[in-house]
Amino acid sequence: MDTNSIAERYGHMLKEERLIPLTSSVIPGTLAFNSPEPYPGFSQYYSDEPGHTRPLYVYLIFDEPVTLEKLIRSTQVVKERTAVKFDAAFVEITLNGQDYKGLRIRNLESYDHVETLQAAYYETGCFHSKLTRKDTEGNAIIRTRKFFSLHSPKQGLYFDNNDPEFGYFRIPDKISWIEFASLVKKVKFNYNLLQSDFGLGFFFWNHKIEDVIRVYNPQMSVEYLEEVRNQFLKWI
Length: 236
Description:
The protein is built from 4 helices and 10 strands; from the N terminus they run βββαββαβββαββα. By secondary structure, it is α+β, with helices and mostly antiparallel strands. It has 2 domains: 12-140, no CATH class; 150-235, Gyrase A, domain 2 (2-Layer Sandwich). The radius of gyration is 18 Å and the shape is globular. Helix content is 23%, strand content 37%. Strands 1, 2, 3, 4, 5, 6, 7, 8, 9 and 10 form a 10-stranded antiparallel β-sheet that branches.
């Protein structure tokens, strides 16, 4: 990607979140997960008054594999048919030994909209999984597949045009999730980066795969992302 250009990329991101099954604001008996604190430590995301807390990430789970094409087409239809504003991305979740597939929903105004979206997706042929006793809360590994709108002010650094608090930097080689988790611990505790959240992923670009680390921080800047990249590269 040329410096300062804007481009759309398709990619995967991997991160860990604590998920809890939603037991209200959903179609009775169906499975959806809530991520109450996807960015631990960032208090500005969370209200002191529970009734005022907006949904951050909600995950709708389907009872059979649904293709990316199907989910994109269904999302287009749902946005046309409802007044609910939201963003959606395809996800694969591993939680307590169980594998799930569905949609990550962001930017909802209220939990009251979750059931509306479930009903709308059902009408497009996306059938929701049923809630069972096996579906419990816990730390989940989540792989998100989505399109990114990016700009690159410096070689190897990328910023999200839709979410300015997210930055990405290129790493030289693919690393495993276990290697990444160990790397994050070293960097956080050695370089005082406890107030950032990290994810591992890659972009498809020019018939190649570009491995990246995703950084979340409300005070994201070129200087900050460069500092984080330099600290990570010392350990890779």
